[in-house]
């Protein structure tokens, strides 16, 4: 998407620095020209933020910015060519002797051409700088780069020892006295005090002064100093805390045993804890908070940090008085939003970043953006303010998000990969760019600039509101366009303007799709996204787009294989995604595309072969082969040392293809998806792939061909019995397990040992398995659990929640089952009838969402209702024998769908939204005083249920086919939406009614007259009319009755009798 000037300059500077480190300029003999380019850009950087801000509303500045960006884009192309040539030279002659003069003699044309192009760029840059002087740009405060502040080498560790010779000044003495006074006053609760400031300001020195103060020595029973480095080890931090507290240190590296030891060391003790140099709140929220909460009242915690957000999280900053002091400003900001909910939401996200300082809130309220005259229609003031408050590096990520087609489905990892490929996220080889991208993505979420959409396992897909999208596309209008063909979209602008970033979404049939040839004029494209049908003909190619960095072809383009033949021409390409297409292979010369980082061929069913030269792509980070028909990977795959994500790796044990052993050297892997494990012999072990050495690996997928979908013999469980996973993954998905019993490593205590850090577990297609894992409840960090298609499980016994441990003569039980589980999905356990829950068992303390579908469960155990006190959303679907749901004290949303035997729903005191779909025997609904929304859907329902008289929802949605007047059952409801179907189309007929203020809207009359049917549905319409006439609005009734009589003539005589007047 559109580059943001100051961030773009930073990207070029980083690129040049990396080239200098790699001696690229020296190798090619163009060092002087590159240095001159860098100097000129550095001289401009202080003023680029002001230019970027002014260009949005000033077309003259926009013209200047366009010229400057043209130079910068050309610079990145030239720098790429330099690096590409240097890489080729190293590959050809890897000797340490690299003489630039010799290179120039051997490649005189290239060296002359590159040098000449850079000199011309420098001349253009000089001219642009002169033109810029006329705009009187000012130096604005720049944002701190997200990468700044990171330790350059090993993280700094501190201790409480104070070097007195280094401590001078009355100010620090004054601050010390004030802080000591604060820490020693009162004995109520555990208080957190934060010292926040930039690096080098003296936070640690002040903390040391306080820690060693004489008054502190006598006030606390225990004093502990912990240095929380950025890349801290959880185990080492816990061991250090236990030692500092003079506790008994267990001889173990298990966190589950160290945390209780820490709790015991400080329980009921009055302590002072200093957490020095905290970079994030992770150490506190996931590790130290729980055990230190057992300290005695009067205990104190001091943290030093550069991040005020960390300070707020650790201190639990929720002081009511501070909020009250800001309420008046907040109300004025809301007033400026003109009642637009989205604007209020975005401003809330912005003010959240400002903390609780009144001055910061006043700056938002009084920002000059609110008073910009002649604001273009596309610019929403609130979105504009939020955009301007973003750091430059995140601004361009935000603009890029608006380019993604609305009809597409892009996961977080894909989007971050695009950002990296475009240069929006950059840094040295030591920086974790994906982690940085996660922070950028989270920032957009926190500011409400993107919002959650479809929910996948641990990976929701986010959307951008149309108002926000329009703003972003307006800001990027000179460089980028997102166009549609079909559904009122048009592509005329493709010929009227040249773009750098282009997204095309086609919603028309293949025969009417956009011709590929119509894109040929866009020769400067760096991003091309095509979603839907595009007509590709023989002879079409990619040659016209030599500058492409990102190429995405999804959902429908036929004959993509024609384009793939010219893929090697895209020398700058970083990101290639071809999904659900007809290609069967990639060209062998793809090995020439040295910059390629991401290749996704997901869903290309005809794809059967990778080229052997793919092993030359040494910068490759991601390879996605999921859903292809490939059955082998070329040997030499282990050379791709930077590979981080690998989906759909086909396991092989012989032939000309690489085996699991070639995964061994790939130490950077984060995500690994192994497919076809049914092909691996029983002697296979995780040691083949050296999983134990992959310290970054967090997500593991194990897939077999499931018996649920493929005919064949049931495989012996011994295959997976040997496949013992003894690593610390965060995310594990097992698909197509054939055994009757789960492997031993998934049962009881072995599971807690092997997967102690697991956060998400999915088990899909357990064709023959008869038992759920009995060790799941012990996993201390498990947050998401999903079972899908386990048709042989009939019984869930007490061991699921309360396994016994046998570590000695006397077995003992786990005290709390599933301590951190937030979401549980139990789907397709077709024979499941009984869930045994022993009365004393405690479980699911933080469970928020439970989904049960397709089973024969006769009774939801009472223990679930009494224990799951945090449960908010419950979905019960397609359960054959369930008759009763009751006593869930906390749920606010309930959906019951296609439960033929369900009769009663009672005692749900906090329920706010209830959806009932096709539950014909449900006749009792009571004990729902908080109900706000009731949704009834069943076309077999001939009358509204009697329980409607006893409940008082504010909103009623009825989707059915009624045959009689029913208004007396819902006359007390404030808002009614009633729908019916027209043949095969659902919800084609509607009545929308509001009680106060009185309102009525419908399309029944027109449908009735044109089709001459739907007599049954008209009753609900007339029921509403009757209600309007007799209770609220007789004038409205008179108008509609006159219209009905005119429209229906004699056919309405029966209806008139029903009104009885």
Q: What can you see in these coordinates?
A:
The chain is of the alpha/beta class and 1061 residues long. Among the domains are: 131 residues, no CATH class; 154 residues, Rossmann fold (3-Layer(aba) Sandwich), CATH 3.40.50.300; 67 residues, no CATH class; 130 residues, no CATH class. Helix content is 33%, strand content 17%. It has 31 helices and 38 strands. It has a 23-stranded mixed β-sheet. A four-stranded parallel β-sheet has the order 1-4-3-2, with helices on both faces. Strands 29-31-33 form a three-stranded parallel β-sheet, with no helix packed on it. Strand 36 and strand 37 form a beta hairpin. It is globular, with a radius of gyration of 33 Å. The C terminus is likely disordered. Pfam families: LRR_14, NB-ARC, Rx_N, WHD_DRP. Keywords: ATP-binding, Coiled coil, Leucine-rich repeat, Membrane, Nucleotide-binding, Plant defense, Repeat, Transmembrane, Transmembrane helix. One of its GO terms (molecular function) is ADP binding. Belongs to the disease resistance NB-LRR family. One of its GO terms (biological process) is innate immune response-activating signaling pathway.
Estimated radius of gyration = 33 Å
The main sheet comes to:
23 strands, mixed
CATH architecture of the domain at 164-317: 3-Layer(aba) Sandwich
Helix content estimate: 25-40%
Mean pLDDT over the residues: 79
Low-pLDDT windows of residues: 143-155, 163-168, 707-724, 805-814, 1007-1022, 1024-1061
Count of distinct strands: 38
Which structural class is indicated by helix and strand composition?
alpha/beta
Assembly form of the protein:
single chain
CATH topology annotation of the domain at 164-317 = Rossmann fold
Q: Quick one: overall form?
A: globular
Portion in beta strands:
15-25%
**CATH 4th-level superfamily of the domain at 164-317:** P-loop containing nucleotide triphosphate hydrolases
Note the gap between the termini. Answer: 66 Å
CATH class of the domain at 164-317: Alpha Beta
Transmembrane segments: 1014-1033
GO molecular function: ADP binding; ATP binding
Domain NB-ARC: 173-327
Domain Disease resistance N-terminal: 10-90
């Amino acid at each position: 998407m559109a580059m943001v000037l100051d961030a773009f300059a930073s990207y070029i500077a980083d690129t040049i620095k990396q080239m200098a480190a790699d001696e690229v300029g020296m190798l090619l003999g163009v060092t002087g020209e590159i240095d001159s380019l860098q100097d000129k850009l550095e001289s401009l950087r202080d003023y680029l933020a002001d230019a970027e801000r002014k260009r949005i509303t000033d077309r003259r500045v926009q013209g200047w910015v366009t010229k400057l960006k043209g130079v910068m884009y050309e610079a990145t192309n030239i720098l790429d060519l330099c690096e590409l040539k240097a890489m080729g030279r190293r590959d050809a002659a890897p000797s340490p002797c690299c003489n630039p003069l010799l290179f120039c003699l051997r490649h005189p044309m290239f060296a002359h051409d590159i040098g000449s192009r850079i000199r011309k760029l420098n001349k253009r840059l000089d001219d642009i700088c002169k033109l810029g002087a006329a705009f009187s740009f000012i130096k604005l405060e720049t944002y701190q780069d997200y990468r700044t502040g990171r330790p350059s080498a090993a993280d700094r560790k501190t201790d409480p020892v104070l070097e007195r010779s280094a401590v001078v000044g009355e100010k620090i003495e004054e601050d010390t006295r004030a802080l000591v006074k604060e820490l020693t006053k009162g004995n109520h609760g555990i208080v957190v005090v934060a010292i926040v400031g930039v690096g080098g300001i003296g936070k640690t020195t002040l903390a040391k002064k306080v820690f060693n103060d004489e008054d502190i020595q006598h006030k606390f029973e225990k004093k502990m100093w912990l240095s929380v480095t950025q890349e801290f080890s959880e185990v080492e931090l816990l061991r250090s805390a236990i030692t500092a507290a003079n506790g008994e240190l267990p001889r173990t590296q298990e966190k589950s045993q160290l945390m209780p030891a820490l709790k015991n060391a400080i329980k009921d003790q009055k302590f002072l804890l200093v957490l020095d140099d905290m970079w994030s709140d992770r150490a506190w929220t996931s590790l130290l908070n729980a055990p230190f909460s057992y300290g005695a009242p009067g205990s104190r915690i001091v943290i030093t940090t550069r991040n005020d957000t960390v300070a707020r999280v650790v201190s639990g900053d929720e002081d009511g008085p501070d909020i009250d002091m800001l309420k008046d400003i907040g109300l004025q900001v809301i007033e400026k939003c003109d009642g637009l909910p989205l604007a209020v939401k975005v401003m809330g996200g912005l003010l959240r970043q400002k903390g609780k300082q009144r001055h910061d809130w006043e700056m938002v309220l009084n920002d000059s953006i609110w008073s910009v005259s002649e604001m273009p229609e596309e610019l929403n003031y609130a979105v504009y303010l939020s955009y301007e408050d973003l750091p430059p590096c995140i601004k361009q990520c935000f603009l890029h998000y608006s380019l993604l087609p609305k009809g597409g489905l892009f996961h977080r990892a894909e989007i971050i990969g695009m950002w990296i490929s475009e240069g929006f996220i950059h840094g040295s080889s030591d920086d974790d760019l994906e982690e940085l991208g996660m922070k950028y993505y989270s920032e957009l979420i926190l500011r409400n600039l993107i919002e959650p959409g479809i929910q996948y396992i641990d990976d929701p897909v986010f959307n951008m509101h149309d108002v926000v999208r329009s703003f972003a596309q307006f800001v990027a209008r000179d460089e980028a366009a997102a166009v549609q063909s079909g559904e009122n979209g048009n592509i005329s602008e493709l010929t009227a303007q040249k773009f750098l970033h282009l997204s095309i979404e086609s919603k028309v049939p293949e025969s009417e799709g956009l011709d590929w040839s119509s894109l040929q004029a866009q020769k400067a494209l760096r991003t091309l996204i095509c979603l839907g049908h595009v007509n590709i003909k023989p002879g079409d190619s990619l040659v016209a787009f030599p500058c492409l960095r990102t190429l995405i072809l999804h959902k429908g383009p036929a004959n993509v294989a024609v384009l793939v033949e010219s893929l090697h021409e895209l020398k700058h390409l970083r990101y290639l995604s071809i999904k659900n297409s007809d290609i069967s292979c990639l060209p062998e010369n793809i090995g020439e595309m040295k910059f390629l980082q991401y290749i996704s061929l997901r869903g290309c069913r005809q794809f059967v072969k990778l080229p052997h030269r793919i092993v030359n792509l040494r910068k490759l980070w991601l390879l996605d082969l999921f859903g292809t028909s490939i059955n082998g990977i070329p040997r030499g795959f282990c050379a791709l040392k930077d590979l981080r994500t690998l989906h759909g790796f086909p396991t092989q044990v012989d032939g000309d293809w690489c085996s699991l052993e070639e995964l061994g050297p790939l130490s950077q892997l984060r995500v690994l998806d192994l497919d076809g494990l049914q092909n691996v012999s029983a002697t296979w072990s995780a040691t083949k792939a050296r999983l134990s050495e992959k310290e970054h690996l967090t997500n593991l997928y194990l897939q077999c061909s499931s018996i649920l979908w493929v005919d064949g013999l049931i495989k012996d469980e011994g295959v997976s019995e040997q496949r013992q996973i003894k690593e610390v993954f965060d995310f594990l998905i097992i698909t197509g397990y054939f055994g009757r019993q789960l492997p031993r490593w998934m049962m009881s205590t072995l599971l807690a040992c092997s997967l102690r850090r697991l956060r998400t577990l999915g088990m899909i297609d357990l064709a023959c398995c008869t038992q759920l894992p009995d060790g799941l409840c012990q996993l201390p960090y498990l947050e998401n659990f999903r079972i899908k298609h386990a048709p042989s499980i009939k019984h869930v016994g007490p061991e699921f929640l309360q396994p016994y441990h046998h570590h000695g003569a006397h077995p003992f039980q786990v005290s709390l089952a599933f301590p951190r589980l937030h979401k549980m999905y139990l789907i397709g356990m077709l024979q499941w009838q009984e869930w045994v829950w022993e009365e004393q068992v405690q479980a699911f303390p933080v469970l928020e969402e439970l989904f049960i579908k397709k089973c024969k469960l006769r009774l939801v155990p009472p223990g679930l209702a009494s224990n799951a006190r945090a449960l908010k959303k419950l979905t019960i679907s397609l359960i054959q024998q369930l008759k009763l749901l009751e006593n869930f004290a906390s749920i606010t949303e309930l959906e019951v769908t296609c439960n033929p035997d369900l009769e009663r729903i009672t005692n749900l005191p906090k329920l706010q939204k209830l959806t009932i779909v096709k539950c014909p025997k449900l006749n009792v609904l009571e004990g729902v005083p908080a109900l706000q929304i009731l949704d009834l859907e069943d076309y077999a329902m001939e009358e509204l249920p009697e329980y409607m008289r006893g409940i008082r929802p504010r909103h009623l949605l009825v989707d059915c086919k009624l045959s009689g007047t029913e208004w007396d059952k819902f006359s007390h409801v404030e808002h009614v939406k009633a729908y019916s179907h027209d043949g095969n189309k659902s919800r084609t007929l509607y009545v929308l009614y509001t009680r106060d203020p009185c309102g009525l809207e419908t399309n029944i009359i027109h449908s009735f007259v044109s089709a001459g049917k739907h007599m049954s549905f008209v009753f609900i319409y007339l029921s509403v009319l009757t209600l309007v006439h007799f209770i609220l609005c007789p004038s409205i009734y008179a108008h509609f009755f006159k219209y009905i009589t005119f429209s229906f003539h004699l056919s309405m005589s029966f209806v008139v009798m029903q009104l009885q007047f």
